[in-house]
Structures are given as structure tokens and as C-alpha cells.
Amino acid sequence: MSELTLSCPDLGDFKDVAVIEVLVKPGDRVAIDTPLITLETDKATMDVPSTAAGEITALLVQKGSRISKGSPLARLRTEEGAASSPSGASATATAAPATAAVPAGAAAPGAAAAGSTAPSADAVSAGPAGPAARPGEASPATASSPPVAVRAETSAAEASATHRTQLLVLGAGPGGYTAAFRAADLGLQVVLVERWEQLGGVCLNVGCIPSKALLHAAKVIEDAHAMREHGIVFGEPQLNFDRLRTWKAGVVKRLTGGLSTLARQRGVRVLRGTGTFAGPHLLQLLPQNESSAGSESGKAESIYFEQCIVAAGSEAARLPFLPADPRIIDSTGALELPPAPGRMLVIGGGIIGLEMACVYEALGARIDVVELTGQLLPGCDPDLVRPLEKRIRARYGRILLDTRVTAAEATREGVRVHFQGKEVSDGLYDYVLVAVGRTPNGRRLEAERAGVRVDERGFIPTDRQMRTNVPHIFAIGDIAGQPMLAHKATHEGKVAAEVAAGQKSHFDARAIPAVAYTDPEVAWVGLTESAARAQGIAVERSSFPWAASGRSLSLGRDEGFTKLLFDASTHRLVGAGIVGTNAGELIAEATLAIEMGADAADIGLTVHAHPTLSETVAFAAEGYEGTLTDLYLPKKR
Ligand SMILES: Cc1cc2nc3c(=O)[nH]c(=O)nc-3n(C[C@H](O)[C@H](O)[C@H](O)COP(=O)(O)OP(=O)(O)OC[C@H]3O[C@@H](n4cnc5c(N)ncnc54)[C@H](O)[C@@H]3O)c2cc1C
Predict the structure, then answer these.
(1) What residues make up the domain containing 616?
(2) Is 610 a catalytic residue?
(3) Dihedral in degrees, nearest 10, Cα atoms 470, 476, 481, 483
(4) How many domains does the chain have?
């Protein structure tokens, strides 16, 4: 018996990474590959497994520690005859986010799949070459076998599965349908499972798309109103909520219908029903309700899969102390446009809350916003929020920052809400919109039956190939972590599909843009100034005020600006923020520049069309370079 120190492996590009969970304690016996701690970088969450078997005698890290390559993690007393570290005195764990021992990829289910006993209509053809577990093969990342009893039970169930497929995608939101389509394009046989009637997930049905349709309606009302001052007077808008709902539903239907066609064209088989895991290669499919066409027979069915991509998304977070009352709604309820909004409280000053506030204000509601933190759009640089805040403070009722909702009572006159903060007087509202974030659906899938680790918040951690701790099961989109945005989900979906098909893809985006489609729009990407300051990263800033943009003035607006952040030593763009009309479109140029490693000269020397809002990106870069002529900026260097 000897003692050794387990230390942090090479983390590739990462150092000073946060420990978000410690999974062992002194006295625990661990095997090789038993996860010791969980690390979280801005790209992924990953487990660091033990490289030796034995008993943990001391922990050398704690939750919240920040560690880099070589940091000591734990002391371990090795067992007689057990495998130990290569060095003997010190063992460095391998950087292997997906190597925890799991009951996955074992031989039994594959044997059943290859045999003739399965009553399947969908014969499983040979899978593509790839690193993932294949029927009949042990997974390369599977270090230990699960208990025999579990395997025997699982393999019998797998053998009698109603459907069989090479790749199962669970959830047909932007992450899931993208993954399914990409995998089918790469030659995999794909089953896509969805509990809702229409494909498209939250984004298409009750998220991005219907909200943007209503925001467009709000913008038309606002633009018409704004032209009053410039000599064109329209009458008061006549609101027909039924027609507005029908139009919004039509936009959604057109897109979701299009997805069904795309699935058919690619041979992706769509099964309706609610899926939960029954084993590492088995999904149980329950019809959503009695009348569901879902699991087609209306009975529970099961699907045997070789590989699976979990794309089950998220749902609106709730405040449990609020009473159940039809006037207290979430974003889905708000998109239904309840009649006569009157006085409305929006709880949560994040993107979703402020977008819906924008819609309802244009439709005539008197809006109050309450936000727990000291800033609207938390996470965004405060200077970018200021023009939006100034505009809505002038138009809305109260904007309560640093304020908590403590209770609410449903009364005949309205919902009475109590606050705790600087301003504490109650409010009485016709509607209360709860927009306090979204909760991932990880805890609703019985993922533990497949051996898949779900963290305490309901996220499923993955590595950069989107593999969970079970190598043949991937997770993507909202369920795989922040930021919960549709474009992150689609890109992760492509990576997971490509890896499932045997390609060596990774999710390695340098920057993911975020957009609030408010009025004015606020968009940001890459490093923020606040994050740079907090992390001690030297950046230099250049901004261009839209009051000097001909295009912005001709749109009747002057409050926007474009801000670029450059690495102080390389002059490469590392972050950008834009506030103003169409900021959500303009941020694409900055995102591309960050991805391409463009510096200020690259951006400033790119010829931009005139007069456009996109010029403001080039002007900000010219300002940094000292070549700007559209403004007079005293020389800095
Ligand atoms: C009001 C609102 C506005 C938004 N606006 C934007 C925006 O402008 N831009 C942006 O990028 N993002 C926006 N988002 C966020 C965006 O909708 C999500 O990030 C995106 O939908 C996540 O995609 P996903 O594929 O991970 O999951 P989801 O879209 O949540 O899809 C998951 C799917 O899985 C299905 N499912 C879940 N569990 C099961 C199960 N057990 N069995 C079968 N099926 C299951 C669900 O029914 C759903 O269809 C908005 C969200 C909301 C609520």
C-alpha cells in the first residue's frame, strides 16, 4: 500500500478553472475513472476522473477552488495489487470529461440487436465507423461493467423494444431537429422523439418566433406613432387580438410545418410521445395523452438506440410562493395575448421579460418591471443597457431594481404583489408575467437509468464533443448548459450529430452572441467590459455614437452606439456591444470578426456600404486605429 497525490490533468486551453462540485470525500473508495471533481469552463462542464484505485485519505480542493494543470486534487492510498498512477508518487488524472464508468455500451443489447429475436420493424443496419459504442462492442470509454442483474434486465427489455434505431434524438427543438437532420444527411438512421404536436420546440412554438412576430407588431405601432412628430399622423391603432393571434399562429405553423417536410425528405422518423430512459440503450415512450397519435398505438412503446442525443430543452422557472391564478402567467401565457392587459407587472428584467414588456406596452398596458439584481439585462455591460433603460423609464410605470417579490395575493380587483427593496409599496395588477429564467429538463428524463449524470440544477454536463459521461449519449441545447439560446443549441446539435457519425467535430465557438429584441435592441458578443475587468484582462475600447450616423438619424433615432473591445496587445477584436435599431442583425459582423481573429484594421479597412448602420462597426474600428474622419477624436497615442 502506498499514498500518492492525484493532480489536475492538462486542461488544454484552460487554466484557473472553477471546481463546481467535489464528488468524493475522505474514506471513499474509488476505482480508476471514478469522477473526483467537476470543473466548469465557459465552454463545458467536465469531470476529472481518478487515475488510480484506492481510498481517498484527504481532499486538497473544495467547491469553489480554481485549479490549473498540476493542481493537487486529493491524496489516495492505493490498494494492494490495484492499478496505480504511472509515476507512483503522483498521478495526473486524464482530461476526460466523458470517462466515468457507466453501464453503457456493454455487449448484451448489441447481441440482441444483431440477433433475430427483436420484434422490430426497423432493422438496425451496421452503424457508421466512429468512436461511440456500437452494439456488440465495449465502449472505448467504458472502464467497468455494470452490475449483472441490471444488465440482464436491461438486455431483455432492449431485445423486445418496439422500435430500433442507430440514432435517437430526444426533443425536436432547434437543437434536436438540427441534430436529427444533420445526422440523417451523414447517413445515420434517425428517430426523432417529440411530445408536442408540432416540431420546433420552445423556439418555434412558444419562444423566439412568436415573440418576434409580436415584437414586429409592437414596432409597427411605435414607428407609426413616432412619425407624428415628423408630419405623418395615423389614427389610433385598432387592435384586433384575434387576428393578431391568428397571424402569429400562422407564422409558427408555416415554420413548424416546414420542419415536418424536412424530416420526411430526409427519412427522419418522427415518433410522438414523452420519452424517459429505461436503460443505457433504451427509451420508454409514453403517449402524451389518451388521444395522442404519439406512440402510434396510444400505448407505451420503447425504442432501442445505439446512440442518443438528448435535446429535451428547458421550461419557464416558477416562483413557488405565487398563487395559482390565471392572471399570473409565464412567457407562454403572455404569447397567448390575454385580453385587456391593463396593468401588468413583469417579474424579471432579463431578455424575455423586457421583450414581452415591450410588446404589451405597445398594446396599451401600463408596465412595471421588478428585477432582483441592480441592473436590467444582467450579464450585459451597463452602458449598453442605459439607452434602453432611459427609454422605458420614460414610458413604463415603475422599474424596480434590487427588489424582490416576496408574496402575492389573488384578489377580485387584481393580483396584489408585495416587494422588498428600496421602494416597498405594493402593486395591484391585472396580469403578472413571471420571467425569472428557465429550468433545464434534465431531471424529468430518468437519466440515471441510462447512467447519465444530471447536475443539481438539472443540466446534463458534456464535453466539447457534446458527449455526456456516457459516451454514446450526447446532450445539446438548453439542457446542456448556458447560454440558453437557440443558436447555441443548433450549433451543438450539428457537433453531436457529426460526432455520432464518426467525425472529429468539437464545439469550439469563440463567441456566442446574445440579443434583446427590445426597443432599442441590445446585442453583445464575446468578452464584456465588466468580465474583462473582473478577470483582469487588458482590453481597449472604442465606441461610435449613432448620433453621428446618418442612417440612424434618418430612422428617427439617435440614442444607439457601437462599442468594440480589442485585445490591448494584439488589437484583435475580443468583444462587442451594440445598442440601437437592428443591433441584433449588426452583431453578426462582430461575431464573425471575433471568430476570424480580425483586428481593428481588418474591420476598419473593410468597405461598408453607405449609409448603413453597419458602418458604425467600421467607424468604431477606425476610431481605435486613429483613422476615423466622421468624428473628431483627440489623439490618444
Ligand atoms: C419567450 C421566449 C423567447 C425566446 N427568444 C429567443 C430568441 O430570440 N433567440 C434565442 O436564441 N433564443 C430564444 N429563446 C430561447 C430558445 O427558445 C431556447 O434556447 C431554445 O428553444 C432551446 O432549444 P433546445 O433545442 O435546447 O430545446 P427546446 O426548444 O426547449 O426543445 C426541447 C423539445 O424537447 C421536447 N421534450 C422535452 N422533454 C421531452 C420528453 N421527455 N419526451 C419528448 N419530448 C420532450 C419539448 O417538447 C421540446 O419540443 C426564447 C425563449 C422563450 C421562452
Answers:
(1) 514-625
(2) yes
(3) 160
(4) 4
